[in-house]
Design goal:
The protein has about 90 residues and is mainly alpha-helical. Helix content is about 70%, strand content about 0%.
Length: about 90
């Protein structure tokens, strides 16, 4: 049972409250969708950049973790600067 102070007084009040609740849910789901998309895009950029680093080393195996960590650092650095990353990054050290 609802307390009197939280129950809507009229149908109009109930409709306004429902509309307000729906907009809050929509804004949260929109933010979650953006962060999920960003996370997926980030992971894909890291994969592509790590592969580019692997190719730059003449496809020599045994450095997968190093490639991944370097790619992750490069992508995160670019994203932190707010620079849009359209292609895999590949800086050879």
């Amino acid at each position: 049972m609802k307390h009197p102070e939280t129950a809507p007084r009229t149908v109009h009040d109930a409709a306004k409250k429902q509309k307000r609740n729906n907009s809050v849910v929509k804004s949260h789901s929109s933010a979650n969708s953006k962060s999920i998309a960003s996370s997926i895009e980030r992971d894909e950029l890291i994969r592509q950049t790590a592969y580019t680093l692997y190719q730059a080393r003449s496809c020599a195996s045994g450095h997968e973790l190093d490639d991944w960590l370097q790619a992750e650092a490069q992508v995160d650095q670019m994203l932190a600067r707010g620079i849009p990353v359209a292609e895999p990054l590949a800086e050879t050290a």
